[in-house]
Amino acid sequence: MGKHKRIGILTSGGDCAGLNPVIRAVVRRAVGTYGWEVLGIRQATLGLMANPASVLPLDKKVVNSWLTVGGTLLGTTNTGNPFAFPMPDGTIRDRSEEIIQGYHHLELDAIIGIGGDGSLAILRKLAQQGNWNLVGIPKTIDNDVGVTERSIGFDTAVNIATEALDRLHFTAASHSRVMILEVMGRDAGHIAISAGIAGGADMILIPEIPFSIDKICEKLKGRQRRGRNYTLIITAEAARPLEGEAVMSTDSSGQTRLGGIGQSLADEISSRNIAETRVTVLGHVQRGGIPSPLDRLIASAFGVAAVDLIAEGKYDHIVTWQKRQVVSVPIPEAIAQYGSLELDGTLIRTARGLGIYLGDS
Ligand code: F6P
Q1: Known catalytic residues?
Q2: CA-to-CA distance for 202 and 155, rounded, in angstroms?
Q3: Cα angle 142, 42, 121; round to 5
Q4: Is 45 inside any structural domain?
Q5: Per residue in 270-303, pLDDT tens?
Q6: C-alpha to C-alpha distance for 23 and 16, rounded to whole angstroms
Q7: CA 75, CA 42: separation in Å to the nearest integer?
Q8: C-beta of 258 in contact with ligand 1 (< 6 A)
Q9: Are the C-beta atoms of residues 130 and 330 closer than 8 Å to each other?
């Protein structure tokens, strides 16, 4: 059985559905199989920065009902890089040492970090600097962690976006409109292409293939000539025109965010008098809700495998999903590969094969 261990677990970066099922699986494996102790760290690294550290002791009873709960019951943050931490007085400080000490004060033997590529890179830097034993679990609705075929949260987001398209078909048809659905995904088009195919979109716009607005308008006119009275377009938030940039906005705190390409497309289509056009921006709805069965399944497999890596002493690794198996990969390798859609991959070929227009040809 090996030596008794105390392990920490934290969720970092944007939340998504499936985080609580991973925590539940980690606790069931660590406590149930190995007899270890698990401390849930609140608000990502902020919980370690707090003095004393902000933790929730986790046992099987605490996490019993967490399988179907969305979000993260430990809380998270996607701002406040510890190496350049924004202070209330407007200055920027390196607070990494405070976080590192939080791990040591808790006398942790290892820590499981659940995050996307950005969070995993930060956690690894902390682990290297602070001599932590780190194991990573990939989560992000964007599915852009290159080494894993699936990350937690992606399937639920695709289900939500697909359902939105299913609903838009009827209202689009009733009013003979062009309906544009803008989905998240950061710099990758995974959500857009998957939901677009599954939800029967007529056009899918993704960051990997810059689009021509003139050609989109020609296609719309062609569809009208052929008697198609409505068109459904799904666009990834970072899709961009051939001669242009992704649409971003900056909030009052100076943070920039993707978003707005749907409306800018709609304005262009309307200004050319092609069709009445409406836009739905799905936004954070994609991150909420009950985790899908597939997300629960992957979360459970990842949670068990992550604890097993700690039992083996195999640190600085991340669990990934490859060909229906959980495979562990060194974290540096995992964060080095950004997971864009492959231009000659199955999904793009499938979309083209179905006659779905991708904005380019
Ligand atoms: O990375 C996940 C994600 O939901 C992206 O798809 C999106 O661009 C971003 O986070 C939104 O971040 P925030 O929650 O800060 O608005």
Answers
A1: 142
A2: 21
A3: 45
A4: yes
A5: 999 999 999 999 999 999 999 999 999 999 999 9
A6: 13
A7: 6
A8: yes
A9: no
User: The pTM is what?
Assistant: 0.96
**What is the domain extent for residue 135?**
6-152+291-322
- Angle 177-182-188 from CA coordinates, rounded to 5°: 140
State which amino acid sits at residue 111: I
Pocket test for ligand 1, best of 15, 19, 76, 141 (most atoms within 8 A of CB): 141
Ligand 1 mean position, distance from CA 184 (Å): 7
CATH number for the domain that contains residue 220? 3.40.50.460
The reply to whether 145 and 188 lie within a common domain is no
How many Å lie between the centroid of ligand 1 and the Cα of residue 85?
19
- In the block, residue with structure tokens 């600097």: 129
Instruction: Tell me, yes or no, whether 327 lies in a domain.
Output: no
User: Of all protein residues, whose CA lies closest to atom 12 belonging to ligand 1?
Assistant: 14
**Do 348 and 361 contact (CB within 8 A), yes or no?**
no
The H-assigned helical ranges of 141-260 are: 154-175, 190-198, 213-225
Q: What's the rounded Cα separation, in Å, for the pair 302 and 328?
A: 10
Q: Supply φ then ψ for residue 80, to 5 degrees.
A: 85, 55
CA 159, 11, 15: angle at the middle one, nearest 5? 35
Determine which of 75-79, 130-134, 149-153, 184-188 has the lowest per-residue pLDDT on average: 75-79
> Counting atoms of ligand 1 from 1, which one is nearest the CA of 79?
15
Ligand 1 pocket residue status of 140, Cβ below 6 Å: yes
**CB of residue 287 inside a 6 A radius of ligand 1:** yes
Same-domain status, 39 and 128: yes
Pairing of strands 325-330, 317-322: antiparallel
183-197 tens-digit pLDDT = 999 999 999 999 999
Q: CB count, 10 Å around CB of 181?
A: 24
